[in-house]
Specification:
single chain, about 475 residues, mainly alpha, 3 domains, two-stranded antiparallel ribbon, elongated
């Protein structure tokens, strides 16, 4: 498949490559911003400097309640270093922590950013550590002089800093603006890229306008519609479309396999649906024609109406009937000659047996061997067949045959004019067409159009070879 490259990409390849790389970097920033909150806990534990840098972009601030709690723990550590764990000052800090712990459980400051599970993890850790059943009792016991003395101050504060502090630090607060959404200053990072993309977009449409002055400005803009997605301040994830197109144009991304498969699926789906619609429409029209009685009328009066379009002056129905009659005489009758002779022989024998005195004649010497009925049947068939074949070539015989066909058609039409016959035939035809329609759609659903597409691709390969 030939690769299309726009004029601007061919004229300024290095500039286009640079713009494509900038667009890719911008797309990476967009997805980083989009997923930052999901990965913030990981960044906080492994790249804390990144969270310090990017938290303000997301409008993230330390939560006042959890921040106060951590500062109180730091104050307790400093106090123990100065006065020891058993001092009144340390007991006052522990009492303050017990009070803050109860408030932490009641207020659940983690709920504002959908991190209630983090609080549950903290409570579970404290319950397991202290052996208490309820979280309130667990925090009360943990922040007591007796427990910390018994279990060892250094060991317990090390556990706190290693297991509990990171969980509490992961909580944060995001301000809400007047329209009820969280503050996000990503536009500050995005603005320089948008300005570059705007300049590039204007340069492109001006170039297209100069090369194609017959186009309107709207038509020129539609030539590069996907570049507009780079300028939108919302739905930034849609930038993957213009970024992929630009990388493809400059040769940094190969999307041919995806492009071929997408086109293949679209072609198969469109072909199957279109074929189904056409086939069903044709069969429905045939069923409607049968219900109106057009089929019966056309069968016995094949002359088309004035508005009917014909490609020649030939009466196809009459020609088909004549051809079928000829085939029946020349090809079919010779093949069924023995059966016809047996039937005629049986008919003659049955007739002769009903004649008076014929049974007595059969007892005469030598007459039984004559087999009159068999010879008579064979002779009748040969004479009749010979006359029929001759009649087809003779003008008089042709006229008689035509008259016979006309009279047979008229007689059949009069018989079919009876209401019950017409209704029965129309009902059978409609049911037959319905069966054809169902099997037609079923066969399309089973093939799913892939076989047709594979055959078309094979033909194209053979043509190229």
């Amino acid at each position: 498949m030939a690769k299309f490259r726009p004029y601007f990409d061919r004229r300024h390849p290095w500039q286009e490559r640079l713009i494509a790389i900038l667009a890719l970097i911008n797309l990476g920033l967009v997805f980083f911003d989009f997923t930052y909150l999901w990965g913030r806990d990981f960044y906080l534990q492994n790249i804390p400097s990144l969270t310090q840098l990017y938290d303000p972009i997301q409008g993230i601030k330390p939560h006042p309640e959890t921040e106060k709690y951590l500062k109180q723990v730091d104050a307790l550590e400093a106090q123990v270093l100065v006065t020891g764990l058993q001092s009144p000052q340390a007991e006052a800090s522990l009492a303050q922590l017990r009070l803050l712990s109860q408030k932490l459980i009641e207020d659940n400051p983690f709920a504002g950013v959908n991190k209630s599970s983090t609080l549950e993890t903290i409570k579970q850790e404290i319950r397991v550590r202290t052996g208490e059943t309820f979280a309130r009792d667990a925090f009360t016991r943990f922040w007591s002089q007796a427990y910390l003395t018994q279990r060892g101050w250094r060991q317990e504060i090390a556990f706190w800093n290693a297991q509990i502090r990171p969980l509490i630090q992961s909580n944060y607060y995001r301000g809400v603006n007047r329209i009820g959404t969280h503050f996000n200053y990503f536009w500050v990072l995005d603005l320089p890229f948008v300005l570059i993309f705007t300049w590039d977009f204007l340069a492109r449409i001006l170039t297209i306008r100069r090369r194609h002055p017959e186009l309107t400005w709207l038509e020129v803009i539609l030539r590069r519609w996907y570049d507009l997605l780079l300028l939108l301040p919302f739905w930034r994830w849609l930038r993957v479309i213009p970024v992929s197109a630009r990388l493809y144009h400059v040769g940094l991304l190969n999307i041919e396999p995806v492009k071929v498969e997408v086109q293949r699926d679209l072609v198969i789906s469109f072909a199957v649906e279109m074929t189904e619609m056409i086939g069903i429409l044709i069969i429905d029209q045939m069923q409607a024609s049968v219900r109106r009685g057009d089929f019966i009328h056309w069968l016995f009066h094949p002359k088309p109406p004035r508005q009917y379009v014909q490609i020649n002056e030939k009466n196809e129905v009459t020609a088909i009937a004549t051809r079928l009659f000829d085939i029946g005489i020349h090809d079919v009758l010779p093949q069924v000659q023995p059966d016809i002779e047996d039937l005629v022989q049986y008919s003659i024998a049955s007739t002769l047996n009903q004649l008076p005195g014929y049974r007595r004649l059969q007892h005469l010497p030598g007459l039984r061997r004559l087999q009159l009925s068999k010879k008579l049947a064979k002779s009748l068939f040969q004479i009749t067949y010979k006359n029929l074949t001759y009649a087809l070539k003779d003008p008089v015989g042709t006229e008689i045959t035509t008259r016979l066909r006309t009279n047979l058609r008229d007689a059949l039409e009069r018989a079919l004019q009876k209401k019950h016959n017409i209704q029965e035939i129309q009902s059978l035809l409609i049911d037959m067409l319905e069966d054809i329609k169902l099997n037609y759609v079923k066969s399309l659903a089973e093939t799913q159009g892939e076989q047709l597409l594979e055959k078309a691709e094979l033909l194209h390969k053979r043509i190229r070879q």
